[in-house]
Amino acid sequence: CNREIKFDVFMDIALDLGADFVATGHYCQKTTTVEDGKEIHHLLGGADANKDQSYFLCQVSQKQLARTLFPIGHLQKSEVREIAASQDLITAGKKDSQGLCFIGKVRLPDFLQQQLQPKAGDIVEIDAQTSREKMLELVTTDGKVDENEWVSLSRKRKYHPSEGKVVGKHQGAHYFTRGQRKGLAVGGTPEPLFVIETDVNTNTIYVGQGKQHPGLYRKGLFVTQDEMHWIREDLELEIGSTMEVMARIRYRQTLDKATLHRVEGGLYVIFEKDQSAISPGQFVAWYREHECLGSGVIA
């Protein structure tokens, strides 16, 4: 699990039962160094790049890492299957799980529809030019950035129904996320429609044509002070400081170059390249080489 409180509960139960360590099946690795007489635990990505699950553990603490083991993190998935087959385990040939582990075999859309009441609303298409005009890129002549630009690059775009055209109906904005393509049930457009923004207050979904629609992309995001978490507490940035990192905003995404900017009230993460479907509520995790240094919930 990726929420620290859940990991805390799981760890506490194990320790209360007399366990010295908790071993997990995550494709992660851990090393430990000593600096000034103090142990520092490092969360590293799994050896199998296609199965690296360090993103899921981006909220763990030093205390938790000290008691955690990753026995398969140094292996490729194919090697794990071979070991399982040699031990006649029935899971050796089992397909990889893609569902929600805590609710069983059910599709996410079906789960949401079971839990949330439908509410009809409009699907509004926004053209690419209108979306570009929403981008307030404040590029300085000397190439330097300031906080105004970080705010601009990180700001969620706000659309109004009058800026586009109604192309369909949906059963609840709360069922959709940025970047989603399936489930819109709207056809007849030259390119597929993607969700570029949702407004749960007005129950409106805004869509754009094609995966390159500018409404899907932006370079920055913001993490509030309360949602900022450093696995490497010794590297936490002070206000006014910056750090060059590699970062990702979703599982299995390729790490991209980014810069952390620590300010009053939180942290800006500004990517070198545009990022698709940055979504509030999801995690951004930052790395140095293969080590996950910290993470935060996208505001």
TrEMBL record:
This is tRNA-uridine 2-sulfurtransferase. Keywords: ATP-binding, Disulfide bond, Nucleotide-binding, RNA-binding, Transferase, tRNA processing, tRNA-binding. Residues 226-298 form the tRNA-specific 2-thiouridylase MnmA-like C-terminal domain. It catalyses: S-sulfanyl-L-cysteinyl-[protein] + uridine(34) in tRNA + AH2 + ATP = 2-thiouridine(34) in tRNA + L-cysteinyl-[protein] + A + AMP + diphosphate + H(+). It comes from the Bacteria. It comes from Nonlabens dokdonensis. PANTHER family: MITOCHONDRIAL TRNA-SPECIFIC 2-THIOURIDYLASE 1, TRNA 5-METHYLAMINOMETHYL-2-THIOURIDYLATE -METHYLTRANSFERASE. GO terms for molecular function: ATP binding; tRNA binding; tRNA-uridine 2-sulfurtransferase activity. InterPro entries: MnmA-like, MnmA-like_C, MnmA-like_central, MnmA-like_central_sf, Rossmann-like_a/b/a_fold. Its EC number is 2.8.1.13. GO terms for biological process: tRNA wobble position uridine thiolation. SUPFAM superfamilies: Adenine nucleotide alpha hydrolases-like. Residues 160-209 form the tRNA-specific 2-thiouridylase MnmA-like central domain.
